[in-house]
Amino acid sequence: MLVVDRQSGTITHRMFTDLPEFVREGDLFVMNNTRVVPARYFSNEGSREVLRLEPLTATRWRCMVKPGKKFRIGHTVEIGEATGTVEQILENGERVIQWDREVDEAAHGHLALPHYMGRDDQPADRERYQTVFAQAAGAIAAPTAGLHFTPEILAQLPHAFVTLHVGVGTFQPVKAEKIAEHVMHSEQYEVTEETAVAIGQAKRVVAVGTTAMRTLETVARDNAGRVVAQSGSTDIFIYPGYEFRAVGAMLTNFHLPKSTLIMLVSAFAGKELILRAYEEAIRERYRFFSYGDCMLIL
């Protein structure tokens, strides 16, 4: 665990098991309790792929598909016993598919692991690619900062949960020449009354991961800096210049270059300090990305 102090600019090397040593009186760790679901499906003949982005109903999905030419309006696809018909092609190329029955997720669903892992999912990923506090099913990708926790470490920390169902847009690079022109993906979130009360009583909120950060800052932005019980969808894009309203510290993994995630942590800690931290992590051979090491930003 790389520890970055924003006030002093110091960077130190610790173990994740040392995390409880950094807890101050009045701290509250806020974690994303979303659970990754098998959202990737292959047609029976194996030539087509469907990635379920959002179940509009149990038998009607918003999807990404490959190859697009085989998913024109009216085209059908068979997965197990279910037959799906392409109803709509959205402006961004996504499809709306109506199924004649529910697709058997247990039999045919696969986890959509990040592309940089360079492999398909394996049976062990069904649990390994989940946090120990995963509960609310609905994410395509794991909130990876939470993967470090064990029940024993969690028990030592004052904590509360929010839910944000991580979407595939998490991995999409920023290609716009001007950052503000990047079209951010939208994700469903929920903050319960119990969590809102706990945050209101905390002296400092520590966001575990960028998804918890985005949830908290969305709600605080909508409520004059306060975190209240609320649910909805968010497409908040946090980049340098953003004024943080809810979060005082964060735990995060090391992110892909040109990603919205590295821009978020740069907004939180300052671009120069984050670049220096990444140089240090590379020099010390830290592991990056989903199954990698982490950084605590104080």
TrEMBL record:
Which GO terms of the molecular function aspect are on file? S-adenosylmethionine:tRNA ribosyltransferase-isomerase activity
Question: Single Gene Ontology BP term?
Answer: tRNA queuosine(34) biosynthetic process
What keyword terms does UniProt attach to this protein?
Cytoplasm, Isomerase, Queuosine biosynthesis, S-adenosyl-L-methionine, Transferase
Asked if the keyword Acyltransferase belongs to this entry, the reply reads no
Q: Which InterPro entries match?
A: QueA (IPR003699), QueA_dom1 (IPR042118), QueA_dom2 (IPR042119), QueA_sf (IPR036100)
Q: Does the keyword Ion transport apply?
A: no
Q: Which domain of life is it from?
A: Bacteria
Question: Which Pfam family is one of those matched by this entry?
Answer: Queuosine_synth
By its UniProt entry, which PANTHER family does this protein fall under? S-ADENOSYLMETHIONINE:TRNA RIBOSYLTRANSFERASE-ISOMERASE
Task: Please give the name of this protein.
Answer: S-adenosylmethionine:tRNA ribosyltransferase-isomerase
